[in-house]
Amino acid sequence: MGDRFQVIVDLDASEADAGRLGRRVVDRLVAEGIVLAERTKCVLGQPLGHPPGPHWERAVTDDWDFEPWDGLAVHTRRTGFTSGADKPGAALCPHCGASTPLEDVHWQRFGTAIRTWHDTGAATVDCPTCAHPVPVPDWTWDEAPLAFGTLGFEFWNWPELSDDFRARLAALLDGHRTAYVWGKI
Question: From what superkingdom does this record's organism come (predicted)?
Fold first, then answer.
């Protein structure tokens, strides 16, 4: 069966803002009964998370067929979020829309930039088509989504989060752009 995860990533939060914005979102989710305030061992790969609250269904689509059995992990440091083991087939430039196939040469350029971003918080990759330098978090990806940010809300083993819920959560993030990454391990 495996474990499923869904992550809403704030693409614009600074390291200084991540903790404050993370607390704001958790406080709202607790107030709505979507998660509990207490932190328990309810998420994979993290020591503690917020278990589902009595009104968890306010976060998911109407056609859910199971109740969540794990919780919410809040990441507040530079993280690359991925959908799983597969790498994307192409990177998409936000300026010109060109698709760059991630073959060996291009993947090496992106891999180097991703490591630099993770270590320093800033890195760009020049688009091979328009030559515009694009910050790592601004690229989008085809088949296997990736997202890079200092704030992420990772829901483990929940039914599909609704578009409305994802928009309500994003509205708490000071107008920041968000990405939605999901996968199964």
Answer: Bacteria
110 DSSP β-pair partners:
none
How far is Cα 57 from Cα 159, in angstroms, rounded to an integer?
Answer: 9
pLDDT tens digits for range 116-142:
999 999 999 999 999 999 999 999 988
If 0-12 CB within 10 Å is exposed, 13-18 middle and 19+ buried, where does residue 121 land? middle
Q: Count other Cβ atoms within 10 Å, centred on residue 9.
A: 27
Using CA atoms, how far apart are residues 69 and 122, in angstroms rounded to an integer? 36
Q: Return the pLDDT at 85.
A: 66
> 72 with 43: CB under 8 angstroms?
yes
**Is the distance from CB of 131 to CB of 64 less than 8 angstroms?**
no
pTM of the model: 0.93
Task: State the pLDDT at residue 39.
Answer: 97
Strands (E), the chain: 4-10, 72-75, 79-82, 90-92, 99-101, 124-126, 133-135, 140-141, 146-149, 151-156, 178-184
CA distances (Å), origin 160, targets 2, 28, 52, 121: 15, 19, 14, 31
